[in-house]
Specification:
Layout (H helix, E strand, L loop, with lengths): L6 E2 L14 H15 L5 E9 L8 E2 L4 E6 L9 E13 L3 E14 L2 E15 L3 H12 L3 H4 L10 H20 L4 E5 L3 E2 L6 H13 L3 E6 L5 E2 L2 E2 L11 E6 L2 E2 L4 E2 L1 E7 L7 E6 L4 H14 L2 E2 L2 E2 H10 L3 H14 L3 E3 L4 H6 L10
Parallel strand pairs: 2-20, 5-8, 8-10
Antiparallel strand pairs: 1-7, 2-5, 3-14, 4-13, 5-6, 6-7, 9-15, 10-17, 11-12, 13-16, 16-17, 18-19
Amino acid sequence: MTEQQTITATPKYNFPQPAIETSLPQRFIELSIHSLKHVQNRPFQLNQQTFQQNNQKEQIQAGRVELQHIPLKRRLEETAVAAVDTSSIKIGETSKGILIAVRGASIWKKKRNYRYLRLGPFIFHITDENRKEVYNTLQMTYFNSSYEQNRQSSPSLFQMPTRIANLLERWLQNTLSKTVSNGLILFDGSLTSGIADTPSQRMKEILDNTRKRDNVVLAFSKMTTLRLNGYLITDVLLGYKPPYLFELSGLKPKPPIVLLGDVYVARLTKGNYAFRLDIDKKVPVERRVESIEKLLGNDLLSQSYPETLRLAHIFCTFTANEVIAMQHFIARKYNLKIINRPDMHRLLFGPFGKGESCS
């Protein structure tokens, strides 16, 4: 692992290079180095715990919901498809806090070629003393609008990995919205806003930027808690031959939750796989259907999921070997003493002890 190797892309598959503000990734590097300098010569407990994003319970009422079946066909006219995803992982603990790593990836498909841009890993030592400074500095570096200044205090120590990854994800989404034209931009998750890590104004600005360049945002949720008549919406089978959508009209979010997209269930290939799909409310209905049909004609789909978005997830996810490399890099670079604290669940309960992550 090379020190602070943060932005990589193969020369053959480089993104077009417009004038993009790069202060946020630069600040990630600066804060990463600054936070790690304060961890030197401390005991270091190895750990490997992935944090899931977008796992908050959806506060949406689905009482009298109407279903509208929308059949789809492939449109083969060439259209750019781009996707973004980020991930975070806890790689260890110190006596003062936690060591985490964050990484993001953008994937761009055009003319049968996939290109990628990968940012990270950014490694941080987060403590109760520095979490407010780290989070607010990253937030104000790019999202410096006045509406951010009056928001709630910084996240808790446990929330920091996902919240930092979310800041990077929003920055990558906004960057794509300013570089792609007449294309499809795929988000991981929903277009639900009004929650702590997704302020409504921030998401509205991203969607506004995409529309200015004639793009359409399609947000795929791998998991959803939204139910219809007691069933998860993705489990409702209508007996139609895929590919098709069905729209859920009549959803009522509970304040302060805001739905910036209309909600669909997308079953795009044969089989029992389906996903919640949010499409920008301000996009005309005809263009929404056209966008999904262009996705069918321009991207590979397996199990109803776009390959571009799948690759974004794969490129940002940490492998076990990468975690080991980061742990040993930190230990050597900052003279940390690796220790193995006893697992109290295993110690007390033997084979019946499942550890902290399962308690």
